[in-house]
Design brief:
heterodimer; A: MetI-like fold; 14 helices; B: alpha+beta; seven-stranded mixed sheet; 15 helices; 19 strands; about 30% helix; disordered N terminus
Chain lengths: ~300, ~550
């Protein structure tokens, strides 16, 4: 078990170098000239251009630029943005927003997705089951920005029940609507996944055995049906955390959340390699850790799975 | 079973860690109190839309509106601009030139102070300008100092010529007086001095990296407001500056700029009453905002002028009779008014000249401006004449735009379609993924098509719409236009001391441009926006920015 975790952690090293170099190279290969963009329509005086190129090593070949970046990382210096702010500061600003948003979305989609899924699965073909099936299909089919704009306009602008955009204190109230919008699609997937698994397992032999043994219905459901049904659901939720953190850009835009998605989008457009690479590296690490945790959870859920 | 337990513990630990991280950050945010939701309390603070400044708030460093909006409220220059674009003396007591604008004498008012109480002397200007002109500092607005004698030069290989040791054109006489020598006579130089790049900085703020960092993030300033806090990507709080004794004091208890990445979110906040002033309207609300906001909507002539440029180095568009005929034909081949009405829902106004509508010197009676009217017959005729000189064959006319700004695709398609239909040639849009790519090709002179361009004045003068764009060596001369006659008429006009004579001269210069069409004027972008029921006296200035200091909270 410990060896397994150790091995997985060792894999981080090549993944780190591979990911940072690939992304650095991709930003480098982006068409356009980041310094020209800084100058806008007017352009910069040649002497200023020269100075900026030198400062950001943009006059050096790709590999040298990358080595400069790596050198910085090992001294915990993630570089600076074109505006002169340390990337570390930018990350410290953006990640709390996105982390809170993603976690709220995960909690929302898991709690409601699994609960609704279990109810629907146990009464397959019933009124509740049919209703949630149609509703979840709708959520999957409608693009997230449509859901976002609709909710924002109806609940925020017209009814005034929840704030239209987030406030700077990241209050639960103002983050609620964005979290629901962000988690909406995954909520539908989790619901459907849970429903199918529960329906399948409900007719399994071991469930009949458990019932015959005299266990109460709640005990059968939680200890036997649910536990076996959760494995694919957990996989989905684990992979989703990473996706929600990096991919919340649409939701962030609608509700004006200064999070990771928007910051990265801007950095990519400005060709700010240091920012893009640093953010992506963190996201890659998040993916790796969540997938490790998911794998460990398998063992907890299914005693037949062992890691050596 | 023990192994399972271990697995659960690891997972639970990771989860608790993640949650506590989120928890920490939220309390950290919460402790700084005051939120957007309280903006409706009417405590005298105006909540206004803005975008996150892209640089630190050092005046010569800023070259975009996000930072510019803030700078213009917290600083005051030697001159300042009225709402209608008239230049007024501000910190300066007098600005005079004895020799048609080659050398200038500046005297400043006594007793002016920065927000920390430190005195404002001419050294505050000279130091700030020298810093901005030093290429090593990479000041993005550094080009404004090119006008002053001693601006560093670069040789053909792109290396700096000599060491830069301050602008030789700046000479301090006393604490309240200094002389400026320009590289080239400019009788309108005093008009430029109100631009943010020329703002002063307090003594010592440029001495070290740390001082600079402090000045850039917590500026000590001399304008009607001072910066109280800057919460990156969230908001900037400005409060009235107690040391300010100028002509435009704050009429409210402060301006808080809320940072948005998307103006749709801001528009919804405005509708819900969480935002007081919005100086932009999202594309999806273009057709409805006048109804949504009623008399709180702003839709008036603006400062942004748009055009497209056909470089002279393109085949068939050289600086000769053929090129001239083809440019005129293309200009008359599409209907500006119709595109403004249908695609922009009346939020743009067809151009009548080369100067934005709000700038003093704009005119709708320039000689030859019928070339900007839709006239398909005439267009065909001119095109045929050009074909008689050199056959167009089955070449394609292309117009390039940058697709990263959402607004361009539709009108570019409309324009090229109309040109294609009128002239019976093949015409198509050419999309660049990014603005920077387009600028790269334009600056290097490697365009293979016409390109869109826009221009906004830095200071209210018609010259600012012609000099930087059409003079042979100008940085933004994308078409590579080179007409000595135009240049001499333009410079002659600028050297006039009398405002009326100057305007007349600029009109003559514009008449030459009408004939040559180094750029084909399209339309002016109206100033659009709206404000909430909680504020009053929202007046949009010549730069299409609301005069925030005059806004009163109800």
């Amino acid at each position: 078990m410990k060896r397994y975790v150790g091995r997985r952690l060792l894999q981080l090293i090549p993944v780190f170098f591979g990911a940072t170099f690939l992304i650095y190279a991709m930003v480098y290969a982006l068409p356009g000239d980041p310094i020209a963009a800084l100058g806008g329509d007017k352009g910069l005086p040649p002497a200023v251009r020269l100075a900026i190129e030198k400062e950001y090593h943009l006059d050096q070949p790709l590999i040298v630029q990358y080595l400069y970046y790596l050198k910085g990382i090992f001294t915990f210096d993630f570089g600076v943005t074109f505006s002169g702010r340390p990337v570390v500061e930018v990350m410290a600003d953006a990640f709390p927003w996105t982390l809170k948003l993603a976690l709220m979305a995960i909690v929302f989609e898991s709690v409601f997705g699994i609960a609704f899924g279990v109810f629907a699965g146990l009464r397959r073909g019933g009124v509740f089951d049919s209703t949630v099936l149609v509703l979840s299909l709708l959520l999957i089919a409608v693009p997230v920005f449509v859901i976002g704009f609709l909710l924002q306009f109806i609940i925020g602008v017209k009814l005034g029940w929840l704030p239209v955009t987030v406030d700077r204190s990241m209050s639960f109230k103002s983050m609620l609507m964005p979290a629901i919008v962000l988690g909406a699609v995954s909520f539908a997937y989790i619901l459907r996944l849970t429903r199918t698994e529960v329906a399948r397992n409900a007719t399994a032999d071991y469930v009949r055995t458990a019932t015959a043994k005299g266990l109460s219905r709640p005990q059968v459901v939680t200890r036997h049906i649910l536990r076996n049904s959760l494995i694919p659901v957990i996989t989905f939720i684990g992979a989703d955390l990473g996706a929600l953190m990096g991919g919340a850009i649409v939701t962030e835009g609608i509700f004006n959340i200064p999070g990771v998605g928007g910051t990265m989008y801007k950095a990519i457009f400005q060709g700010e390699a240091a920012t893009v690479v640093s953010f992506t590296t963190i996201l890659v690490l998040v993916y790796i850790f969540t997938s490790l945790i998911v794998d460990l959870l398998y063992a907890a859920l299914d005693p037949r799975i062992r890691y050596e | 079973m023990r192994k399972n337990l271990f697995a659960i513990l690891v997972a639970a630990g990771a989860l608790v860690f993640a949650l506590s991280l989120a928890g920490c950050s939220s309390t950290e945010g919460g402790s700084t109190s005051s939120s957007a939701a309280t903006s409706t309390d009417g405590d005298g603070v105006v909540f206004a839309y803005n975008t996150e400044p892209q640089t630190n708030l050092i005046p010569s460093m800023v070259n975009e509106v996000g930072g510019g909006n803030i700078l213009e409220l917290i600083f005051e220059g030697l001159t300042r601009y009225d709402v209608d674009g008239t230049t007024q003396l501000a910190i300066a007591e007098s600005i005079t030139t004895a020799d048609d604008g080659k050398t200038w004498n500046v005297k400043i008012k006594e007793g002016k102070k920065f927000s920390d109480g430190s005195p404002l002397t001419v050294q505050s200007f000279v130091d700030a300008w020298n810093w901005g002109a030093n290429p090593e500092n990479g000041a993005l607005s550094g080009e404004f100092f090119m006008a002053i004698e001693g601006y560093p030069e670069v040789d053909d290989e792109g290396n700096l010529v000599g060491e830069f040791d301050g602008l030789t054109g700046l000479e301090v006489v006393s604490d309240t007086e200094f002389n400026i020598t320009l590289a080239e006579s400019d009788p309108e130089f005093d008009k430029q001095l109100g631009y943010s790049a020329f703002y002063p900085l307090p003594t010592g703020s440029l001495d070290s990296e740390d001082a600079l960092e402090a000045q850039g993030t917590q500026p000590v300033s001399n304008g009607p407001y001072m910066l109280k806090s800057w919460d990156h990507n969230v908001q900037v709080e400005l409060v009235p500056n107690p040391e300010y004794d100028g002509d435009i004091p704050a009429q409210n208890d402060g301006v808080t700029f809320m940072m948005y990445t998307d103006d749709s979110a801001a528009y919804n906040d405005l509708l819900a009453g969480n935002l007081d002033v919005l100086d932009s309207i999202p594309a999806d609300a273009m057709s409805t905002f006048m109804d949504d906001l009623g008399d709180r909507a702003v839709n008036q002539d603006g400062a942004v002028w748009q055009a497209f440029t056909i470089p002279y180095y393109l085949e068939h568009f050289a600086d000769d009779e053929e090129g001239r005929l083809r440019r005129q034909a293309i200009s008359m081949a599409f209907d500006r008014q119709q595109i403004c009405d249908t695609i922009f829902q009346g939020t743009r106004t067809p151009a009548t000249d080369f100067v934005a509508a709000v700038i003093p010197g704009h005119s709708d009676s320039i000689e030859g401006n019928e070339v900007l009217q839709y006239n398909p017959e005439k267009a065909k005729e001119l095109w045929a004449q050009a074909n008689a000189i050199s056959d167009w064959g089955n070449a394609t006319f292309k117009l390039a735009y940058n697709a990263d700004a959402s607004a361009h695709k539709e009108w570019v398609e409309a324009v090229v379609n109309q040109i294609g239909q009128t002239l019976e040639i093949s015409a198509e849009p050419e999309a660049y993924a990014q603005f920077s790519e387009l600028r790269n090709d334009a600056t290097n002179g490697t365009m293979t098509s016409a390109l869109r361009s826009g221009w906004q004045a830095d200071y209210p003068s018609a010259y600012n719409f012609m000099g930087p764009l059409y003079r042979a060596n100008a940085g933004a001369n994308d078409s590579r236009y080179d007409n000595p006659e135009f240049e001499s008429v333009l410079l002659e006009a600028r050297s006039q001391q009398d405002e009326a004579a100057r305007t007349e001269g600029y009109n003559k210069a514009q008449a030459i441009l009408m004939e040559d069409l180094p750029a084909i004027p399209l339309w002016g972008q109206n100033a659009l926006g709206g404000y909430s029921e909680h504020v009053d006296n929202v007046v949009v200035n010549w730069k299409t920015v609301p005069a925030y200091q005059d806004i009163v909270k109800k």
